[in-house]
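Technical annex, item 7. During the second reporting period the consortium partners agreed on a shared format for inverse folding records so that results from different sites could be compared directly. Each record opens with the tokenized structure and is followed by the designed sequence. A conforming record, contributed by the partner at site C, is shown below for reference.
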């Protein structure tokens, strides 16, 4: 359990969530590119010429596929990225609270030490 807490304190969980978000975006984009590439290969292997009739066929066939991939990719990207930001903000807030608590304890001990000092000529 301490290992997870250490990872949180070092902001590693937030960093990896953000990295995973970018990986999801790259995978979604590559999936669309590979789908279009496979459609080009399939269309050209049937003996059809690419220039004139290819563009409407690819747009009609891949538009629905591309929109569904884009929407899910964007959704998961924002979920992971937001999770990373929230985790980092949560850890930063708890770290600030810990620092202010430590500063207050240090200031309390300094005041107590000053009260105990006896100045020359002063009666204890």
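Designed sequence (site C submission):
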């Amino acid at each position: 359990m301490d290992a997870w807490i250490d990872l949180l304190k070092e902001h590693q969980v937030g960093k990896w969530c953000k990295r995973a978000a970018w990986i999801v975006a790259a995978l979604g984009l590559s999936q669309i590119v590979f789908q279009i590439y496979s459609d080009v290969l399939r269309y050209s292997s049937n003996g059809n010429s690419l220039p004139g009739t290819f563009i409407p066929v690819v747009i009609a066939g891949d538009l629905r596929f591309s929109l569904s991939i884009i929407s899910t990719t964007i959704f998961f990207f924002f979920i992971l990225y937001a999770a990373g930001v929230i985790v980092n903000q949560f850890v930063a807030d708890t770290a600030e609270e810990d620092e202010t608590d430590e500063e207050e304890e240090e200031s309390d001990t300094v005041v107590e030490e000053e009260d105990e000092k006896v100045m020359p000529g002063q009666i204890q």
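The chain is about 85% helix and 0% strand. The mean pLDDT is 75. All partners now use this format for quarterly exchanges.
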